[in-house]
Design goal:
The protein has a single domain, classed as TIM Barrel (Alpha-Beta Barrel), CATH 3.20.20. The chain has 13 helices and eight strands. Helix 8 packs across helix 9. With 337 residues, it is α/β, with parallel strands linked by helices. It is globular.
Length: 337
């Protein structure tokens, strides 16, 4: 299988000259609203779209000179897209934020009034959707998700635009941040990437969380007697998930701190994970929300220019171990998919 010309062009626009995706993510909508509400003491419903859009503009303008690309949403991120650095490519999110909690299965849906072609016309070098996925869900629920991903893959093939699938693993009966889920997360991540590497989905790049919960990895602050994974076990989980993924894949930060995400990337490097970069969001800019809410846009620019840049450069420094996305497509072309 060869990558089409349009998809190659799109991926090249999103990556460094070495073929590494060092991207900034700020397509958050409901999650960003929660951060604003927490910082301001307001109800989430009272947070204005204009304020969130303004925040994204500042993040894009100050931080994209240090990124190969930025991920935004077309709902209130297009102004920020226009403020990105010339060197930064653009991914646009196609999914609605969140899911209907009254319907079982965390079913996904796409934004009303948009298509892969329309996102492309808005300047997108690639289209991204987020999928909540649990291998243990019922066959009926997962069949709907498989068909949904296939339809988007077909749209992206027709538009000749790269398709990024963001997988967020969960289990209906567990807290995703708790120890019970931490024990099954390595298997959940591995099974998810195995599934969506199948050619029928038309996915080009998988965006996924690291296969362990870093909160439970042995460290100086967490002795092995209280950890769920030793550092060696964590590295083994990274290797297994990496080996299972036949497509280029990049890690998302899952809302952890910059320090924690940096440590996760260090374990990935130690493990020999074949990741092709990152799409890092809140680990870079989330502490800037409080600065913006309390002290205004000028103070945010100062914070971003100092702490924000340090955060993104800390992540970039861990990408020396990343593998060019072209490597996986060479393997596919050789019949190894």
């Amino acid at each position: 299988m060869r990558l089409s010309g349009g998809k190659q062009k799109g991926l090249a626009a999103l990556s460094t000259e070495r073929g590494i995706i060092a991207a900034l993510a700020i397509d958050q909508r409901s999650a960003l609203r929660k951060l604003f509400a927490r910082a301001s003491g307001q109800n989430e419903a009272d947070i204005s779209v204009e304020k969130m859009a303004e925040f994204k503009v500042h993040v894009s303008r100050v931080l994209t000179p240090h990124a190969s690309a930025i991920l935004l949403d077309p709902e209130f991120g297009l102004a920020a897209a226009g403020q990105r650095a010339k060197n930064a490519g653009l991914l646009l999110a196609y999914e609605k934020t969140g899911y209907d909690k009254a319907i079982p299965g965390r079913l996904p849906s796409t934004l009303d009034g948009f298509s892969a072609r329309r996102l492309q016309r808005e300047g997108a070098d690639a289209v991204k959707v987020l999928l909540y996925y649990s291998p243990s869900s019922t066959g009926e629920i997962n069949a709907k998700k498989y068909a949904w991903v296939e339809r988007i893959g077909e749209e992206c093939i027709a538009a000749d635009v790269p398709f990024f699938l963001e997988i967020v693993n969960y289990h209906d009966e567990m807290d995703e941040k708790g120890p019970e889920f931490a024990r099954i997360k390595p298997d959940a991540v591995t099974r998810a990437v195995e599934e969506f590497c199948n050619a029928r989905y038309g996915v080009d790049v998988i965006k996924v969380g690291v296969p362990v919960n870093m909160k439970y990895v042995e460290s100086g602050a967490l002795p092995l007697s209280r950890a769920i994974y030793s550092r060696a076990q964590a590295a083994a989980h990274f290797r297994r998930a990496s080996d299972a993924c036949k497509l280029p894949f990049i890690y998302l930060s899952e809302g952890v701190t910059n320090e924690t995400f940096g440590d996760a990337l260090s374990i990935a490097a130690e493990a020999g994970s074949a990741f092709s970069g990152v799409l890092c969001g809140r680990a870079t800019w989330q502490d800037g929300v409080g600065v913006f809410v309390k002290d205004g846009p000028n103070a945010l620019d100062v914070w971003l220019s100092d702490t924000g840049v340090k955060n993104i450069e800390n992540v970039n420094a861990r990408l020396a171990a990343a593998h060019p996305w072209q490597e996986k497509f060479e393997s596919i072309a050789e019949g190894k998919r």
